[in-house]
Design goal:
Length: 378
């Protein structure tokens, strides 16, 4: 730390120079986050000093969080759902499994997740001393139900299904997982960190949320397709019983018990999520998701014109493109300032997310570069 103070304008100028080293969202195909909606930024700034870790001091902000959770629950088929605004999908997934473990009493049990599950579940196994059993995927890159059934036993604390997988944007057969969870009497958690703000606005007939009675908890991230500021995740439980399994006594705060993982929690994130949901409403989100899906269709059409097929027909605004030598193609694209990622083995492919910051024009530029790169490699 400096001994003497530095004028504020010099500090800000230094920060501006540092930020110039960051890349631009205009060239990002690899991220499930986007620029926050302007109203989210305004709301965030209004609540910077609020701490939901001690909600009795900030009753107005606590009320905003409660209303945000209610709206999320309504979106996911259960207006009475309980939960809180977390730091993101990782925290939400940890807490959902922790609640399942605490309720089950299986101190050294296991959880069953799809092979396509987010890496947060590997962290969960380590943190909670649970065996993470990974079920195989079917030909459509959804979890294979027969594989799940082969892995389940009396020590299984929870089943996990994904509604919008990170790599493929695929939705697991949650209805079938719900039947298994109901039969065994165990917790079913749905990780819809990305899909939670996409699937409700698509007319695809899929059932994956609290409308299925066996679904116990859902992860949904407002800072992804919800256009809130970072970090703003969401964790919802069907009822208060699940939440009670997370309670910790907080002896010196304004409330006697706390259910969140972190102690100090920013009220600004909850305010940002609330502001966007109130401002856009279902109509605005439907329009936004429609735009992202049109970008997705545009990309797939253009890719096919240059001889590139997706691994699966996109379910949402995530595309995995089959190209020869994916690592080399990715490297060459990165050299041209296109920020793309890859899926894991055994289905290596280019992974592209079509978010609100992308445009039809940039997709065309990307495809032109991809065509050149593929011609050079071949």
């Amino acid at each position: 730390m400096r001994e003497r103070s530095l004028p504020a304008d010099e500090v800000i100028a230094s920060l501006a120079r540092t930020k110039e080293h960051d890349y631009s969202y205009d060239r990002f195909f690899s991220t499930m986050c986007s620029r926050p909606h302007p109203i989210a930024v305004r709301a965030h700034d209004m609540f910077l000093e609020t701490n939901l870790g001690d909600p009795g001091l900030f009753p107005g902000t606590a009320g905003l969080e409660e209303e945000t959770v209610r709206m999320l629950g309504e979106l996911l088929g259960c207006p009475q759902a309980q939960g809180y605004i977390s730091t993101g999908g990782t925290e939400s997934n940890i807490q959902a499994v922790r609640a399942a473990k605490n309720r089950s009493g299986k101190r050294e049990g296991n959880i069953i997740v799809p092979a396509s599950a987010h890496f947060s579940f590997d962290k969960i196994g380590d943190l909670l001393s649970l065996e993470v059993r990974k079920a195989e995927l079917d030909s459509h890159l959804r979890v294979d139900i027969s594989s799940v059934e082969a892995l389940i036993d009396e020590q299984t604390a929870a089943l996990v299904g994904i509604a919008g997988t990170t790599e493929f944007g695929q939705v697991d057969p949650i209805e079938e997982l719900a039947d298994i969870a109901s039969e065994w009497g165990i917790h079913l958690h749905v990780d819809a960190a990305f899909g939670g703000f996409v699937l409700p606005f698509l007319d695809n007939g899929l059932k994956w949320d609290f409308s299925l009675p066996a679904v116990s908890s859902i992860t949904i991230d407002p800072h992804k397709m919800g256009l809130a500021t970072i970090p703003a995740g969401g964790l919802l439980f069907r009822n208060q019983d699940c939440m009670n399994a997370l309670e910790t006594e907080t002896h010196y705060l304004t409330r006697a018990k706390q259910t969140s993982l972190t102690g100090t929690r920013s009220g600004a994130s909850a305010a940002a999520a609330y502001a966007v949901m109130m401002h856009l409403g279902r109509e605005g989100f439907r329009e936004m998701v429609g735009y992202c899906m049109e970008l997705t269709r545009h990309l797939v059409r253009g890719a096919r014109e240059i001889g590139v097929e997706p691994l699966i027909e996109p379910v949402m605004n995530v595309v995995a493109l089959q190209v020869p030598q994916p690592p080399k193609v990715r490297e060459r694209l990165m050299d041209r300032d296109w920020h793309v990622s890859m899926t894991r083995e055994p289905k290596r492919a280019l992974r592209l997310i079509l978010m609100t910051h992308m445009s039809h024009e940039n997709i065309d530029l990307f495809l032109a570069d991809l065509k050149e790169i593929l011609a050079d490699i071949n």
